[in-house]
Design a protein that fits this description.
Elements: H1 36-41, E1 50-56, E2 59-67, E3 74-81, H2 83-86, E4 97-102
Antiparallel strand pairs: 1-2, 2-3, 3-4
Length: 104
């Protein structure tokens, strides 16, 4: 998945030097929006630290990054097909990839 610019997901742009949206005070963060079925596919209900919609091997997906529950120095990443967003009755899909990574 490619970004429009470093650190900015495709289709979005920072609104000023802090990269926050209007109405969001510096230091505050808006939770990235992911369809409920994509969130359910992670098996977790916590707010994503980051999320990006894109394509992986020809499949429409969301990359969802969550805080690792046992270690604040790590994150858990999930690559989830987004087909359930178009067909909610299908229910959540199984993540294509999952991994735990150190925070930069």
């Amino acid at each position: 998945m490619q970004n429009a610019s470093p650190g900015v997901p495709s289709g979005t742009s920072p609104d000023g030097p802090s990269g926050t949206s209007p109405g969001v005070a510096p230091g505050e963060r808006q939770a990235p929006a992911v369809p409920p079925c994509v969130q359910q596919a992670t098996g977790r209900s916590d707010t994503p630290l980051a999320a990006e919609h894109g394509s992986y091997q020809g499949t429409d997906v969301y990359l969802v990054v969550l805080a690792h529950p046992g270690d604040p120095a790590r994150v858990d990443a999930f690559l989830v097909p987004s087909g359930c967003a178009a067909t909610p009755s299908a229910g959540p899909d199984t993540p294509l990839l999952t991994g735990t990574y150190s925070r930069p």
